[in-house]
Amino acid sequence: MKKGITRRWLINGFGVIVLLVIVLEIAFAMIMRTYCYQNVESVLSDRAQAHAALYSQYADDEPFDFEEIARDFAESFHEKAFFELQIVNSEGNVILSSTGFAPSSSTAPEFADALQSEETMAMWQGGLSSGENVMAVSAIVKSEDGYVYGAVRYVTSLTLVDRQILTWVGVMVMIGVLLVVFLMLSSSYFVSSIVSPLKEIGETAHTIAMGDYDARIEKKYDDEVGDLADTINYMAGEISRAEKMKNEFISSVSHELRTPLTAITGWSETMRQSVSDPEIMQKGLQVISHEATRLSGIVEELLDFSRLQSGSFELKAVQMDLLAELEETVLLFRERAAREDLQVDYIECIHLPPIMGDPDRLKQVFINVMDNAIKYSNPGGVIHVEARLIGSIIKIIIRDNGVGISPEALPHVKERFFRANPTRPGSGIGLALADEIVRRHGGSLDIRSEEGVGTTVTIRLPVPKSAGTETTSN
């Protein structure tokens, strides 16, 4: 999973967070530097402006010696521990310093800017030849008539300020690192809570794919991952059920095929040994013909199922008389029902309009439903067949009073391979095919049943709007 969710999280999630923290740290450092430097500049400006104003008061007195008065101020300067007071002449050269030593710089780079400034003041920040970072503010000293005597220059080192800024930035960096570590640990736990279950789900899905349909996933979280685990478990259960049904289907079809083949083989041997007996030959031919027809029906049903699975199942729709196909099916099964002590009660409809459909396929539906009604009816039972026209819908109702279907099996009777009663003959795909055929005709096949009471199958088919309709009662 390192190349999957974890990698995407590292790049898209955690990487963005780290980048954001770095940007915020840089922004904080710049803001702190600007804030501190502005405070220092403000302090220097206030002092330089006040000092320059004091000089200007002396400039109104006669005689005024700028350098002498500046020397007196420099010698009596009391803030030498924090600032350096420099006196700049009218040419911008530093002539005096409160340190008593040679000035730290021989010129004042900001002097020219101060002369042009409306506030007669300017700031300069940079490094000395010694590498020390300093800030200087110069305030112009001039008389009332505008004569410039020079400037008062306050200079201070920014070493302590830079150190304080670095301390604050260092603290913020540590906070950022702790925040990133915390986010990494919490996010790692969160990602692990997704990746680990997904890995387990993948392994279980692989196990299921290998044929172990009893494998299940333990649901640890009541969220989307837990829903996925439930879905996989449900899928495994459905696959297991479908596999069981398929095996039962194969077993049932094998039995269905074996029965007519056994009969054909047995009677073939009997006929071969009794060539001179016309009665045995006639009976044998009848049995072989009957079993061959039955075998053909099974094979055709399997072929239809194969076409349905492959998507090549097609209908040949023509204008047809649905009632004719239904009556033919009833006649076909009436004799068989009589042999099994069953009664077929058929109520004819006076008129049914023609519909667009495939006669062979719809007859296959009627045959399948009638066949099931006979299979699941007990001797002495009655099978009721009725056709009705209700509005623009034709309803075909086939009802029996046989064994019925259990409530547990009823929702699955139209599923492929499902057999409600394994003790009765059948392949388990007839109703699935019938339901698909009716659905493709735009209709529906509904089944209602009560165990021990009987089953009612209702087939609804639409009548084209162009056809005349006659509404009958329910």
Short description:
The chain has 474 residues and is α+β, with helices and mostly antiparallel strands. Helix content is 53%, strand content 17%. Residues 468-474 have low confidence and may be disordered.
Question: What do these coordinates show?
Answer:
The model is unreliable at 468-474 (pLDDT under 50). This protein has nine helices and twelve strands. Helix content is 53%, strand content 17%. The strands form three sheets. Strands 2-1-5-4-3 form a five-stranded antiparallel β-sheet. α1 runs antiparallel to α4 (159-209) and α8 (359-375) packs antiparallel against α9. β11 (444-450) and β12 (454-462) form a beta hairpin. The chain is an alpha+beta fold and 474 residues long.
Number of strands: 12
- Over all CA atoms, what is the radius of gyration? 52 Å
The total number of structural domains is 3
Q: Indicate the low-confidence ranges by residue numbers.
A: 468-474
Anisotropy-based shape:
rod-shaped
- Within CATH, the superfamily of the largest domain carries the name PAS domain
From the coordinates shown, what is the CATH architecture of the largest domain?
2-Layer Sandwich
**Helix/strand-derived class?**
alpha+beta
If helices are DSSP runs of H or I spanning 4 or more residues, what is the number of helices?
9
**What's the main sheet like?**
5 strands, antiparallel
Order of helices and strands: HHEEHEEEHHHEHEEHEEHEE
Termini Cα gap: 63 Å
Strand content: 15-25%
CATH class call of the largest domain? Alpha Beta
What is the fold-level CATH name, i.e. the topology of the largest domain? Beta-Lactamase
